[in-house]
Amino acid sequence: MNHFDTIVIGGGPAGMMAAISSSFHGQKTLLLEKNKRLGKKLAGTGGGRCNVTNNGTLEDLLAGIPGNGRFLYSVFSQFDNHDIMNFFTDNGVALKVEDHGRVFPTTDKSFTIIEALERKMKELGVTIMTQTEVVSVKKNADCFIIKSSERIWSCDRLIVTTGGKSYPSTGSTGFGYEIARHFNHTITELEAAESPLLTDFPHKALQGISLANVTLRYNKYIITHDLLFTHFGLSGPAALRLSSFLKGGETIYLDVLPQFSAEDLATFLENNREKSLKNSLKQLLPERLAEFFAQPFPEKGKQLTGKEKEELIQQLKALPIPITGKMSLAKSFVTKGGVNLKEINPKTLESKLVSGLYFAGKVLDINAHTGGFNITVALCTGWVAGSVEY
Question: How far apart are CA 252 and CA 270, in angstroms?
Fold first, then answer.
């Protein structure tokens, strides 16, 4: 039975960074991954380009992590998004910043990020075993015992970085929750987050229309970002972000022109009253969306009654869209819920229940928006979980 100081279960971004940190801090480290390659889910992020972090301030980061982001204050004081950027540039990866602070490798290839992490692990002497599925984890008086179908290892410190339950085809089956439960941790309710929204809205007329920087609102939650109309409802960052606060059965409101006030639109309609309503709205909106808003009203702008003009402006500024549900957890980007944070030390990410047991990444009850925030959580918690010294 091979003994290691630290064993990391799960070879996603949290696991790879935990292994790097552990080895950097002098620990003999083993990384176990059941897939053939490391970073399978990471390879598909950012449309295959890997949105590796976001370059915002600490408050920007916390705003991008609606699910228990404030738990990460101590983590970010040790390793934050700017440390992520420095890590990759120091390890030969050129980065670029795009809209909304999103950071990508200049190659626009996820493999560039995965390669850099693999290279660093090898440089630091991490033992990496892929195609190795852990079947049981136990602890005796002295150490943890980790078994696969073929081998047994022991370690003093165990770091669980197995991800959530979204996109199980990438290996995120929820095994980390089973490990946590085995050690008497509680798992908060699991549900889809960063999920496309299902609606009964007229899909066919608007399918494929993409809008930049529109506003979606539900109660106190207001999201301004890009939106995509699909055959099933709504997608794009605005819909994905709002989904964290929805379950289905709610009505949300879409402002397609947040840069214009109601008074601005009244003036615009008056100035264009001689034109057809559709042609007027085409100056502000994509053609099919202009047709959608113009269709219930008279053809010419000057034919609008005062009440009709108010109604049109109301539709443009607060179009009601009933939400019937959201995509299943298996088809969502992020899992909401996980290992209960009340049972985790926020400074070290060590279990408060079991000495030497650590959790990092999406197995924790932390969920973030798309735009680099989820990978930031994974990399930063991975570093901190791996960096505790004896």
Answer: 29
Cα torsion 54, 58, 64, 67: sign: positive
Provide the residue type at 349 as one letter: L
Contact indicator for 186, 35 with CB cutoff of 8 Å = no
Q: Where are the alpha helices (DSSP H) in the chain?
A: 13-24, 58-63, 73-78, 81-90, 110-124, 175-182, 203-206, 237-243, 262-271, 277-281, 287-294, 306-317, 373-386
137, 151 Cβ separation under 8 angstroms: no
**Which residues pair with residue 49 across a beta bridge?**
none
Strands 191-193 and 334-336: antiparallel
Q: What is the pLDDT of residues 35-71, one digit of tens each?
A: 999 998 888 777 789 999 999 999 999 999 999 999 9
**Gap between the Cα atoms of 13 and 170, Å rounded:** 13
State the burial class of residue 334 (Cβ atoms within 10 Å of its Cβ: 0-12, 13-18, 19+).
Answer: buried
Q: Is the pTM of this model over 0.90?
A: no
Phi, psi of 155 (to 5 degrees): -155, 160
Q: What angle do CA 166, 186, 389 make, to 5 degrees?
A: 90
DSSP string, 230-283: -SSEEESHHHHHHHTT--SS-EEEEES-TTS-HHHHHHHHHHTTTSBHHHHHTT
